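Try this one yourself first.
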């Protein structure tokens, strides 16, 4: 039987369009189905636009601290121009993805896809067949069932980038990655920011020493943290009622941002007997579902919710859909948090490593001892390296401070290739750089 396509990818985000490009490069006739805009949430409403705002926050902080370097400077924030800059960046990258689709002869089908059967789907009234399907429909914002969450002044992260003026007071529900990034952005833009978080700690995947530095930094910026707290309701006005420390408290504000996480965006698959749990579509190490010709990648699988992980999985899925057999190796996926200071991590945390290996080796190096950090006037930060005891193989790395999101790839490369501490310490690192602090942290262990 002839099919319209060898591979059809449902979803044009970083998992989907990368999977389509790989499939095309392997010789497959390929299509991508996208309901909204190519690039998905990451490019259009998430990773990219928020980093424009985050960079603006960094610039504001640089200007405010310029006097320490003998520079007297003033600024005036133009929120309309900032939003326009964000839109220009997004549009340029969207055009780039569209160009890649044309360059690889990939058909782009506009509309919301629904499966008819295992080999057939339709979108916007157009029915098409494919030998293999890759589902890459991503995730959507989770809004908890809080009374008043549907009030017009309550927004999700997508709307937070479209405000026409900076709110005087902002309450953020959730101290996850999204909530903390927006807290840093809007505190720099001049808002009073309060965060209400159910958990007793910030970002449980971080070790306590790294999380502690971030917490103190947020507090110095004036961000008010209410951990181990629960939002009871949001009243018209706008007032957030929450319980904290056994007391019922109230927070008046201009805007509320719900940043309670994201959930798999599963729809249009009702005709299939896919194995789906509460997190998402279940897949094996080869990104294949329980149906032989259907694969799934990225957030929709309920695993790591990161654009670069989705892109990697998309490549793996395309290769396996076209006859190869390559498992996904996710042990060295770095995570980056664009707060100020930045946070990045890869591999095992100290707690995870101790549970598996017992007497592990841990080395830390503070930015306060880094010549490069001191030259910038910002010595808030720490590099932490975790290694197993026998061969001193690197198991994990966590960094907080300037350039953390750029530096973490040395840790990812080390874990991927099973490097030891000595292989890092014996590698010449340039001076003065932030990256040499990784070598210094390793040397704290090796002596």
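Now uncover the answer:
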């Amino acid at each position: 039987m002839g099919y319209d396509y060898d591979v059809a990818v449902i979803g044009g985000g970083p998992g989907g369009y990368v999977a389509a490009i790989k499939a095309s490069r392997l010789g497959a006739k390929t299509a991508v189905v996208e309901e909204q805009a190519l690039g998905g949430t990451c490019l259009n409403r998430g990773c990219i636009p928020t980093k424009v705002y985050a960079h603006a926050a960094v610039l504001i902080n640089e200007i405010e601290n310029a006097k320490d370097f003998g520079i007297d400077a003033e600024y005036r924030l133009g929120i309309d121009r900032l939003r326009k800059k964000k839109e220009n960046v997004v549009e340029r990258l969207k055009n780039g993805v569209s160009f890649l689709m044309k360059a690889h002869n990939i058909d782009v089908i506009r509309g919301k896809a629904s499966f008819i059967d295992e080999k057939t789907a339709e979108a916007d009234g157009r029915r098409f067949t494919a030998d293999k399907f890759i589902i890459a429909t991503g995730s959507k914002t989770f809004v908890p069932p809080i009374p008043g969450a549907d009030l017009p002044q309550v927004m999700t992260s997508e709307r937070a980038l479209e405000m026409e003026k900076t709110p005087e007071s902002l309450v953020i529900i959730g101290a996850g990655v999204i909530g903390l990034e927006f807290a840093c952005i809007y505190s720099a833009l001049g808002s009073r920011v309060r965060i209400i978080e159910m958990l007793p700690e910030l970002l449980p995947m971080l070790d306590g020493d790294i999380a502690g530095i971030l917490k103190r930094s947020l507090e110095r910026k004036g961000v008010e943290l209410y951990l181990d707290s629960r939002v009871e309701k949001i009243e018209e006005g706008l007032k957030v009622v929450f319980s904290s420390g056994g007391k019922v408290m109230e927070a008046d504000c201009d805007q509320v941002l719900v940043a309670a996480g994201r959930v798999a965006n599963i729809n249009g698959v009702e005709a299939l007997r896919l194995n789906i749990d509460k997190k998402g579509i279940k897949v094996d190490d080869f990104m294949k579902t329980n149906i032989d010709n259907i694969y799934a990648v990225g957030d929709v699988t309920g695993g790591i919710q990161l654009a670069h992980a989705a892109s990697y999985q998309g490549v793996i899925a395309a290769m396996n859909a076209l006859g190869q057999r390559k498992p996904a190796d996710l042990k060295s996926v770095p995570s980056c948090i664009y707060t100020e200071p930045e946070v990045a991590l890869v591999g095992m945390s100290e707690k995870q490593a101790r549970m598996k290996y017992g007497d592990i080796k841990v080395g830390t190096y503070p930015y306060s001892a880094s010549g490069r950090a001191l030259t910038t006037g910002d010595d808030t930060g720490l590099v932490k390296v975790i290694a197993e005891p026998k061969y001193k193989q690197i198991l994990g790395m966590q960094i907080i401070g300037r350039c953390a999101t750029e530096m973490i790839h040395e840790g990812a490369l080390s874990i991927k290739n099973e490097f030891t501490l000595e292989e890092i310490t014996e590698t010449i690192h340039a001076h003065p750089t932030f990256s040499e602090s990784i070598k210094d942290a390793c040397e704290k262990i090796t002596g």
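Discussion: DSSP finds 13 helices and 22 strands in the chain. The chain has a mean pLDDT of 96.
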